[in-house]
TrEMBL record:
Stored Pfam families: Glyco_transf_4, Glycos_transf_1
Keyword annotations of the record: Glycosyltransferase, Transferase
Domain Glycosyltransferase subfamily 4-like N-terminal: 14-165
Source organism, top-level taxon: Bacteria
Gene Ontology molecular functions: glycosyltransferase activity
The gene coding this protein: epsD
Glycosyl transferase family domain location: 177-341
EC numbers: 2.4.-.-
Name recorded for this polypeptide: Glycosyltransferase EpsD
Keyword Secreted: no
Amino acid sequence: MLRVTFLIPTLDRSGAEKQLVLLATGLPRDRIAPEVIVLTRSGPLEDDLHRADIPVTILGKRGKFDPRTLRTLKKRLRENPPDILHSWLFAANAYGRLATPRRRAFKTVVSERCVDSWKASWQLWLDRRLISCTDALLGNSESVATFYEQQGVPRSLISVIPNAVTPPPRPTTSRAEFLNSLGFTPETKLVGVIGRLAKQKRVDDLLWGMQVLRQAEPTARMLIIGDGPERAHLQQHARDVEVADFVNFLGHRDDAASLIHHLDAFWLGSGFEGMSNSLMEAMAAGTPVIASDIPPNRELITHGVHGYLANVGDGVAFAQYSVKLFQDPALRQSLSTAARDRMQSEFSVPRMIERHAAVYEELAKGAHAQA
């Protein structure tokens, strides 16, 4: 039985955390025994792990660098080494490799989930410094793989395993009931943004797009679902560009994924991504999508086939494509069907799980051969 220890900063309901839980709870338990170590704090996804009888340990890291947590992790890995240590996101990738003994009895895998152009020079330096402690780097898109190859990671260490998607559950209320709860009429055309409200998402560009859209389609309204450091700025920006009366900030919603079914168009304006879970969920739900024309989005969308791609920052294009969708039901159905079919055939959870399991087993086989 192969023992795999996952290491991640939190168990918040965010993209990387969702993917880890899908993977850990779906691994074939006759071949692989998983456990999860959380660096900083728990979150709502811990319940999913407990329901699957997966052990969870919370280390309670404080601040950016916590020597106590690093010592605790070192001790844990030395006294109870797994066969595979698989870390996710920068903090866990750094702590996991820093805690790895020089004479290690296990293989280390790191998951990078985004084209991390936000990283400071010291973070990129640390990534390079820890390459010698890395047996495999898993990116969730070719653009992420290329980014880390450019940072000095040998291509021989890099593999691409795309995110998996499960179709969002149906909402508990009808569209008519949902529109009524927001004070909207049944004729309303809904465009939606779902995700963390951070600068990389460029939601301010989409608010400009909403200003244009409401001129062409007076019934159009925008929902912004999620929270984050940019929320107050975006609410002020909505007032500045005179769309505040047409935009609803719903904040964090546990039912965010199910609300995708109520949208007439899903917008994603990010300047950079890894592989957007919310975009994939919208495609799996059959909701027409319009996304920024960046490499990871191009890996999901063929323009005009599965949805539309607009230049980064071009809010007007988001509005124009939305009007096109609103006015042509046959086009809308064609894009929706193609997107849904692609998610089902190429980005299934079983396929993602088996590809990870194959990486773990290949690394373990190599370790046994060296022993």
